[in-house]
Request: fold
Amino acid sequence: MHVKKGDTVEVLAGRDRGKRGQIILAEPKRDRVRVEKLNLVKRHQKPSPQYPEGGIMSKEAPIHVSNVILVCKSCDKPTRTGRKISDSGKKVRYCKRCGAEQD
Ligand SMILES: [Zn+2]
Reply:
């Protein structure tokens, strides 16, 4: 995947198009991510030991990775990333706009 947990991304589709948030969970097997406070769905929670009150809760629904784009840590713009070997020999992603390493 081109994004991972902890990345700041911009959403490209759906109700939250254009909004930014941080990835709280990545699911590489399903090509999906959950982004904090975005793509919320309401869940009707029955009373349970963990939530004795029950009620309606908001929860992040998975977004397909093709519908998010990484926001560069350096230039703060949505950007495509490339991959390269850094000076320290690690594989890193870099911003195709400004060249800053993202990992
Ligand atoms: Zn950049």
Summary: The pocket of zinc ion is lined by residues 72, 74-75, 79, 95, 97-98, 100 (CB under 6 Å). The beta strands are 8-11, 20-27, 32-35, 40-45, 55-60, 63-64, 68-70, 81-85, 91-95. The chain has a mean pLDDT of 94.
